[in-house]
Amino acid sequence: DYGTIKKVLAPMNQSSSSCLLEEIELLPKSQREPIRSLQILHSQSVLFVGLQEHVIKVPLKRCPFYKTYSACIGSQDPYCGWDVVMKKCTTLEESLSMSQWEQSITVCPMRNLTVDGHFGTWSQWKPCTHTDGASVGSCLCRTRVCDSPAPQCGGWLCEGPTMEIANCSRNGGWTPWTSWSPCSTTCGIGFQVRQRSCSNPTPRHGGRVCVGQNREERYCNEHLLCPPHVFWTSWGPWERCTAQCGGGIQARRRTCENGPDCPGCSVEYQPCNTNACPELKKTTPWTPWTPVNISDNGGHYEQRFRYTCKARLPDPNLLEVGRQRIEMRYCSSDGTSGCSTDGLSGDFLRSGRYSAHTINGAWSPWSPWSQCSRDCSRGIRNRKRVCSNPEPKYGGLPCLGPSLEYQECNILPCPVDGGWSCWSSWSKCSATCGGGHYMRTRSCTNPAPAYGGDICLGLHTEEALCNTQPCPDSWSEWSEWSNCDSSGIQFRVRQCIILFPVGSQCTGNTTETRTCALDSNFIPEVSVARSSSVEEKRCGEFNMFHMIAVGLSSSILGCLLTLLVYTYCQRYQQQSHDATVIHPVSPAPLNTSITNHINKLDKYDSVEAIKAFNKNNLILEERNKYFNPHLTAKTYSNTYFTDFNNYDEY
Question: The domain 414-474 belongs to what CATH superfamily?
Answer without folding.
Answer: Thrombospondin type-1 (TSP1) repeat (2.20.100.10)
